[in-house]
Amino acid sequence: MRETKFRAWNEDHFIYSDEIYGDTLKDGDGWFGFEDGVFKAWVSVTVTPGDMYEPPYSSSEELDIIEQFTSLKDRTDKTDVYEGDLCQRNPDEPIFEVKWDNERAMFYLYNKEYGRRDMSFVRVMRVFSNIHERENLLEAK
């Protein structure tokens, strides 16, 4: 069975979640769900004794971007590959972005100069960043 995991980018950081519980996605650091019709992430917060909040306390963040795990790992066989990741075979070779095609319901690799590539190529590539933290790399290559 395909493993279902998501991550959400929220301005400057990722929130990862990998288990589904009803209408929320939950893990040890936080969970995803709907609040007043908005998809949000709740992040666990550590509280100190005597704090006005009783543990467990959580704060919510509205999510900017939600990305799904492709169920693949890169060539290191350790790094999960998500939509929005940047992959490259060698440092002097083209950079590809992992994208989702709604019409075909599939992930693919994309490079402006070389176009679309099948996801099977990710097995010979290394994920080194993502479009949110290094978007300028796509413009340069």
Write up what this structure looks like.
- The protein is mainly beta.
- The protein folds into two domains: 6-63, no CATH class; 70-140, SH3 type barrels, CATH 2.30.30.
- Helix content is 4%, strand content 50%.
- It has one helix at residues 136-140, and strands at residues 6-9, 14-17, 19-21, 24-26, 30-35, 38-45, 57-62, 65-73, 80-82, 85-88, 96-101, 106-111, 115-117, 126-130.
- It has a five-stranded antiparallel sheet, with no helix packed on it.
- Strand 5 and strand 6 (38-45) form a beta hairpin.
- The N and C termini lie far apart (36 Å).
- Mean pLDDT is 76; it is low at 19-28 and 52-58.
**Helix share, percent:** under 10%
Low-pLDDT residue intervals, each spanning 5 or more residues = 19-28, 52-58
The CATH superfamily of the largest domain is identified as YopX-like domains
Arithmetic mean pLDDT:
76
> Order of SSEs, N→C?
EEEEEEEEEEEEEEH
Named CATH topology of the largest domain: SH3 type barrels
Question: Strand count, sense and closure of the main sheet?
Answer: 5 strands, antiparallel
Strand content: over 45%
